[in-house]
Amino acid sequence: MDQVLLITGGGRGIGAATALLAAQRGYAVAVNYATNSLAADEVVRQIRAGGGRAIAVRADVADEAQVLTLFETIDAKLGRLTALVNNAGVVDTTQRVDEQSLARWRRMFEINVYGTMLCAREAVRRMSTRHGGTGGAIVNVSSVAATLGAPGQYVDYAAAKGAVDVFTVGLAREVAAEGVRVNAVRPGIIDTEIHASGGQPGRAQRLAPQIPLQRPGTAQEIANAIVWLLSDDASYATGSILDVTGGR
Predict the structure, then answer these.
(1) H-helix or E-strand containing 29?
(2) Angle between helical axes of 13-24 and 37-49 (0-180°, round to 10)
């Protein structure tokens, strides 16, 4: 049976690296994106060029109707889902909590928390033996900010990722007997475009001296951890949160 994987926010950074690596390991991959169709299409092109199966599917994970359509598209074009990587996420500009708006918090939680929960719900409905599935694996992309709090930067992002961690543990215990494993990866400072989206394109290199390994991580290093957690090599891991932080 084909292993069918959905990666949310799969067009760039960690998502793209994970999509390419998973395809090399034999997964059929659905590359989800919200706005950048060119980036997602390029990931799909590379996978197909290597002989793999892949599709790009547009959906805002914070919109329930779009999430339902996303999963229905995968059902129709790739088959029953067996793996999910909840990678889609946003940061925002550096602000103290007393400068932040409710609108900012809503966006932060709708994408980073509700989007993760919506996609996990739909995945469980397809993977769980309770729903006629054959099992599967979910990996949520969290952040070491959940343990550090990100003071003076984006406490709201850290709080959202803290919610993702708790959700990971709870869902893992809920569906463990139904053949579904749920884990999370907590990256540290990774050299991807997410820093530029928060107005700090040089942030990863600037913070390198604060990291015990003295450098930011790469998207590939996080992808390696994610694909391991999806694989049978991690068959006894569920409810685990794996820090990949360079020692931070």
Answers:
(1) strand 28-33
(2) 20
Which residue ranges make up each domain of the chain?
A: 4-244
What angle do the packed helices 115-127 and 64-77 form, to 10 degrees? 40
pLDDT digits (tens, 9 = 90+) for 143-166: 999 999 999 999 999 999 999 999
Partners of 86 in the β-ladder: 140
Q: Would you state the structure tokens that stand for residue 163, as one six-digit string?
A: 């919610």
pLDDT at 196 over 90: no
Alpha carbons 204 and 63: distance in angstroms, whole number: 30
Buried b (16+ CB within 10 A) or exposed e, 40-70: bebbbeebeeeebbbbbbebbbbbeebbeeb
The residue annotated as part of the active site, out of 27, 33, 154, 157, is: 157
User: Was domain 4-244 assigned CATH 3.40.50.720?
Assistant: yes
Name the amino acid, one letter, at 12.
R
Query: Can 27 be counted among the known catalytic residues?
Result: no
